Amino acid sequence: MVTLTLLPHETILEILSHLPLKQLETVAKTFNHPITDICLPLLQPLFKSRRDRKDLVRAFGEFGQRFPVPHGLESLDLDSPVRKTLGLSRRDVIKLPRRRRTLDMDFMEFHGDFDWLKPLPKSVSDDMAGHYRGPALIGTALDDLLSSAERVGVTIPPAFLKFMQNEELQLRIPSHHAGAFHLTSGGLLRIPKARIGGRVGYAIGFLSYLIDGVMLYLEPGKDGICSVLTDMEDECPYEVDGVNVPHEEEDCPYVTQEDRDDSKAQKVEILAHGCTLELVGMDFETYLANLYYSEVLYWVCRLEAEPVPGLVEYVKYMLVERREIPKKPKEIEDLTEDARRQTIADLLQ
Length: 349
What we know:
single chain; alpha+beta; two-stranded antiparallel ribbon; 41% helix; globular; F-box domain-containing protein
């Protein structure tokens, strides 16, 4: 480390800038003050993300669990071909993903290029072909979004725009419960301040299911908060066939005169219905990656399809816990010496 500190400041900065943020944070905590000082500017996005997370939890409550484990995955037979496909040993136990991991996906990095979003196995894409309801953009939906974003002063994430305009990428995300990507027309909706702790925020639907929908949530400013919400209600209230259909304002006790005045001045509708808004992602690309891998996992389990690149790592990081081996299991004690060695070897795989 002494050699590193002797390098020019610009050289050290260039070296450190290639590290993932979590590793960079470890470097900043581990080494001396000059290195820490160089790390701090690079760590600002990580610090901002943590501040945003706290603000969002205060506004919406704790994050929801949006990505269930496919039915039967937890009880797969130890010799199941699916377990072998997913690289699971006999000691690996499938558990529901912890909320922190469901949202963070620390083992991946996202740069807006969707290089992780690989084509589906042929068996999966063939099965999904008859259910496709795309493309995501219909009519003036994109123009409505961009013009409303300019009026209210929010920045649309480039990754979101890229995905919504790329039908090939949309086709790579399957759905086993009638999900469809549709950017709602009419532009952004203003969320009543009383619903989000006095904050100023806007939303637009981009993914609809039979009983709920998913929205991109945005706050004003170049570095304004951007996250993903679910809209839990009997039916998707802000989108019907890709068109915004806001409920009547008098049906929503949250709407104030200030909300009405601001929405009128900005020429945006109010998200006036009384459904439950729940946080499911800190940013669009992380949410999409979780959706992709959890959906592909379902189809791998159902069709015994080949896993897409990255799925094995996703399963190990998000779903696996190691089974502890009993110190003196009776079933092992009763075996012959050779059989005992083989059984222990199998358990340790």
